[in-house]
Amino acid sequence: MSDEEMDFSDDDYDAYYGGEFDGDVDHVDPLKNDPEYMDVAFLIDTEVERLLNESVEELSNSIQVTPSLAKMLLHMSNWNLPEVVARYRQDSHKLLTSVHIKPPQPPPQNVFQDGEVTFCPVCLAPMSPDNASHLTCGHTFCKDCWSMHFEVQIMQGMSVGIECMGNNCQVSAPEDFVLGLLNRPQLKEKYQQYAFADYVRSHPQLRFCPGPNCNIVVQAKECQAKRVICVNCKTQFCYKCGSDYHAPTDCETIRKWLTKCADDSETANYISAHTKDCPKCHICIEKNGGCNHMQCYNCKNDFCWMCLGCWKAHGSEYYECSRYKENPNIAHESAHAQAREALKKYLHYYERWENHSKSLKLEEETLAKIRERIQEKVMAGTGTWIDWQYLLDAAALLAKCRYTLQNTYPFAYYLEAGPRKDLFEYQQAQLEAEIENLSWKIERAEMTDRGELENQMDIVEKRRSTLLSDFLQV
Hints:
The protein is mainly alpha-helical and 474 residues long. The chain folds into 3 domains: 3-36 and 249-471, Four Helix Bundle (Hemerythrin (Met), subunit A) (Up-down Bundle); 118-189, Herpes Virus-1 (2-Layer Sandwich), CATH 3.30.40; 206-238, no CATH class. Helix content is 50%, strand content 8%. A 3-stranded antiparallel β-sheet has the order 1-7-6. A hairpin with a 6-residue loop joins strand 8 and strand 9. Helix 13 (389-406) runs antiparallel to helix 15. The two termini are 15 Å apart.
């Protein structure tokens, strides 16, 4: 979207949304309209091996090489089978050399000569054709030395990257050669596990689930920065980078942000307090819920936890709360003033990032309380779990939307000033306002009408989907 397309006024903002959120709204169809949706398959080890072996067999038959060599070629070419076939038929020697494989060569003629004793170059033990082996480069060593070399490499975590023992030789050892010379079954198993992991990591359509002790492999035809939720361990992650899901912020930006947060953590310590003074009566208030709409228990003043402004004004001016106001004259200020302004800007975004992180944890506590109340109601005969499921659905949606909102702040921090940033911050502010409304209603669930709560859920999800549709970078 160009800057010209982004350049419109506040009146245009209202026209842009033109009553979109009024009244009842159909739920978003995740298979068609959800900008985060991607088609994935969840595979176990045997299914992955079958998938890889199909490619190996096809390549082996196409260019008439051993399955072990075919697997090595595919691994080193990121499993691009058509490209490997084309390059091999064009110049097989060049392809093999480019991936540190040489056409098979016999051992040097002087290695085994009639009547002469030949010694292993490593251990100096006598060698014969029966107890010696060589790779395609022709470098020959005794089998015991090969075995010891492989054991050392495997114990260091190596597998398909193991190279020849020859001086400055980068020729790779194929899988069948390594397995044929390993003597210990445990090492063979470890080698195969490492090799399997290397094959998966080099395959553009496969990703390991990053969940602890999870063996699921995720398959997708396109490598996109979209949400994956493992069917086994329920871990939520970005398919492209494997880290915690971070939409709408892209993978590179979230890495920069997290690195900056880690580097500046001591500077930001002062903003991690859980208490603030009521802006009206100045009594100390502790935040014990996820909602940023605060009501002082002493004077009943309604205010915003983030900016301490009057909450009633947030219906129309919440945009000013979430938006950072750049100093237009900062370029003409001193270096000290520019550094102070840079810190001020960072802290503005970091405080909101960290606040939503804390809100997510507090809302987990709210969810636990909701479950307890539902259990009490069910035990008292006031409905069934199905009757109260909408409360759990609301809490789950709130967590998903607040997580998206949290990740809008790194995006906004690095986004260049201009019409595009103005639009983003407008949508961000609208999403934030609706999330706080939903959080307020959930924390007072027993006093909230079910229809009102479900309508608020639809509004929040629409706001989130609109923002992601316009700004999600995959």
